């Protein structure tokens, strides 16, 4: 217990590092995943911009990367990160790997939530003269906003989990803190302190996401 008290500054620093990695990964992966998800929705048969070849290509890429366990993806993308000038360890590498993993997960969530929008809403918009691009980039995200918020909330929780896993390859954050100061030094107090902080972060994200989604869905 005394060791945990001594390590409190490192614990708060690791918490801040986790929030940093999650925030940047969500920003990069969230935007890229949104665009890929919109493309998947728009190019499927019978949609706004049907394109069988492009849809098939996107679908194959997403289905290829999405099932890869994150711990394996970490090792797989390390050479690519180094080739791009990104260190193979540290928070920057964590952001790079988590962005790739979240991109494909988010794209599928976006596509599935857009598919829940009733066809009548799209038909009514087309009847009023709305362009296909306006429908895709403005109407559909607004109509599916509540489910999208819940989907992104799920992703943020997954990102927190990924940062903990990334700690196994010295990518910083609470995962590395728990491994270095807890697991390797046989100190369960330190390990469980990191676990509790992660639980608090996850519960806070889930609460805020659920509250925001309820507010949107009641409009």
Structure report:
The protein has 219 residues and is mainly α. Helices cover 81% and strands 0% of the residues. It has helices spanning 2-6, 8-43, 52-65, 70-83, 91-114, 119-127, 132-143, 145-166, 173-183, 188-217. It is elongated, with a radius of gyration of 20 Å. Keywords: Cell membrane, Membrane, Transmembrane, Transmembrane helix, Transport. Residues 15-209 form the ABC transmembrane type-1 domain. It comes from Microbacterium salsuginis.
Briefly summarize what is shown.
Helices cover 81% and strands 0% of the residues. It has 10 helices and no strands.
Topology:
Layout: H1 2-6, H2 8-43, H3 52-65, H4 70-83, H5 91-114, H6 119-127, H7 132-143, H8 145-166, H9 173-183, H10 188-217
Helix pairs in contact: 2-3, 2-5, 2-8, 2-9, 3-5, 4-5, 5-8, 8-9, 8-10, 9-10
Pfam families: BPD_transp_1 (PF00528)
Protein name: ABC transporter permease subunit
Family: Belongs to the binding-protein-dependent transport system permease family.
């Amino acid at each position: 217990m005394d060791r945990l008290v001594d390590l409190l500054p490192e614990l708060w620093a690791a918490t801040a590092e986790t929030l940093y990695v999650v925030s940047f990964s969500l920003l990069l992966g969230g935007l890229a995943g949104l665009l890929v998800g919109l493309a998947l929705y728009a190019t499927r048969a019978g949609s706004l911009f049907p394109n069988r070849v492009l849809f098939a290509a996107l679908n194959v890429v997403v289905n290829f990367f999405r099932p890869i366990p994150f711990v394996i993806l970490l090792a797989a993308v390390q050479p690519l990160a180094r080739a791009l000038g990104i260190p193979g360890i540290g928070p920057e590498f964590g952001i790079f790997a988590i962005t790739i993993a979240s991109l494909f997960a988010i794209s599928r969530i976006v596509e599935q939530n857009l598919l829940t929008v009733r066809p009548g809403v799209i038909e009514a918009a087309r009847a009023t003269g709305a362009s296909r691009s306006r429908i895709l980039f403005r109407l559909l995200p607004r109509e599916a906003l509540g489910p999208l918020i819940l989907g992104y909330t799920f992703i943020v929780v997954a990102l927190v989990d990924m940062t903990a896993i990334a700690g196994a390859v010295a990518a910083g954050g609470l995962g590395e803190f728990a491994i270095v100061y807890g697991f390797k030094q046989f100190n369960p107090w330190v390990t469980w302190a990191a676990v509790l902080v992660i639980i608090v972060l996850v519960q806070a994200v889930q609460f805020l996401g659920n509250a925001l989604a309820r507010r949107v869905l009641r409009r």
